[in-house]
Amino acid sequence: MLNVHRLSLLRELSRRGTLSEVARVLNYSPSAVSHQLSQLEKEAGVPLLEPVGRGVKLTDAARQLVARTDEVLAVLDRAEAELAASTPTVSGVLRVTSFHSALASILPTALTLLSARHPDLRVEVFHREIGAAFDGLAAHLYDLVIGDQWPDEPDPVRPGMERQELFSDPLLLAMPADWPEPASLADLADAQWAVDPEYLPGGQWVRRMLGDAGVVPKVLCDTDDPLLQAHLVRTGHAVAVIPSLLMGPFLDQTRAQVLPGEPVRRLFTAVRDGQTGHPAVRAFRAALASAARRESPDL
């Protein structure tokens, strides 16, 4: 009998190319990954890996096995969801990954609602950026991703996953309260900015928006922490593009202005296709939607 966990490691190797990268993503040692794949070769009775330089590559038999592994894991996901639905209570562990602003705003309220509605369900929360979050969802490290999609960004949800929209979150220009209101973004050419790093979708979008307005931002702080960005605005040191989700609790004594074109980022949840009907997933999504309505009355 082929071990399902070892099959999933082979699938990750097919996706990532090296044992060290599989080990990094799954938080294993490369030697542990190599040992498990050696055991899988014994179970399969055929060679699955062949050496290439300092690395390895999959054999034809291994690639055929990987194609079947996706099917096996999808069936197991559905079976797990069906078993969970057959019990009278929502219980177990749900592993959720999300980004800064959701963690700081709607997630605490959702957890409060969930603990009252389903006290036997335990939620484990992990802060991950969007790429790592979807890597982990595909690898079965997480069960649900709370994600965001910035304007003009391709859909980050991958094949084999199901997306459910949460709400659209307006993006606002946040300034210190005593600053004069700019007539256009060009009026902020000499301002200091707090922005996301350039490798993140939000950082790319803000720089592109400012570039279209003829502004090269003078970056005071390059950080993916929106609460630090908000604090720099509140203390008079910078301007920033801040999601409206954070405006109330974190940006008192500041002023906010709608950006040209009224851009929004779209918040959503994503799960693997086979987990869509899982009672824990449905309960969490319901609590998150209720929390969004409480924290953002305009929804």
From TrEMBL:
| GO MF annotation terms | DNA binding; DNA-binding transcription factor activity
**Any Pfam family hit:** HTH_1
Residue ranges occupied by any HTH lysR-type domain in the UniProt entry? 2-59
The domain of life for this entry's organism is Bacteria
InterPro entries, from UniProt?
A: ArsR-like_HTH, LysR_HTH_N, LysR_subst-bd, WH-like_DNA-bd_sf, WH_DNA-bd_sf
Q: Which GO terms describe its cellular component?
A: protein-DNA complex
Keywords in alphabetical order: Activator, DNA-binding, Transcription, Transcription regulation
Q: Which family does it belong to?
A: Belongs to the LysR transcriptional regulatory family.
Q: What is this protein called?
A: Transcriptional regulator
Q: Which organism is it from?
A: Corynebacterium variabile
Query: Taxonomically, what lineage is the organism?
Result: Bacteria, Bacillati, Actinomycetota, Actinomycetes, Mycobacteriales
